[in-house]
Specification:
Number of helices: 4
Helix content: 25-40%
Distance between the termini: 18 Å
Radius of gyration: 14 Å
Strand order of the largest sheet: 1-2
Shape: globular
Largest sheet: 2 strands, antiparallel
Strand content: 15-25%
Structural class: alpha+beta
Length: 98
């Protein structure tokens, strides 16, 4: 997994604080980010957990991220898959052979 941030251009800007933001920079999530996402009140839906995790990775609130178009959300979800743990691929229960 790469530790380099992923920059994603949005098809339409979202309001972050007082600024209109058209590009989001997503940092590699930590285990703490994943745990926090899973512990969210009422986070029984995968999109809610994914959106919370994306927001933490981008340094924005989930309310700010929720302005994102569905097309942009799908684009981010697809491009961030290398960062997302527990997506059905190797990672969640992976062990190292040293």
């Amino acid at each position: 997994m790469s530790a380099n941030p992923i920059k994603i251009d949005l098809s339409r800007p979202i309001r972050v604080g007082a600024d209109d933001v058209k590009t989001l920079t997503f940092n590699e999530p930590t285990l703490g980010d994943l745990i926090a996402a899973e512990e969210q009140e009422g986070a029984n839906g995968q999109h809610k957990i994914t959106a919370f995790l994306m927001a933490r990775m981008a340094g924005v609130s989930t309310i700010e991220l929720a302005q994102m178009s569905l097309a942009d959300y799908r684009k981010c979800d697809r491009l961030l898959q290398p960062f997302i743990v527990g997506n059905g691929e190797a990672g969640a229960g992976e062990t190292s052979q040293s």
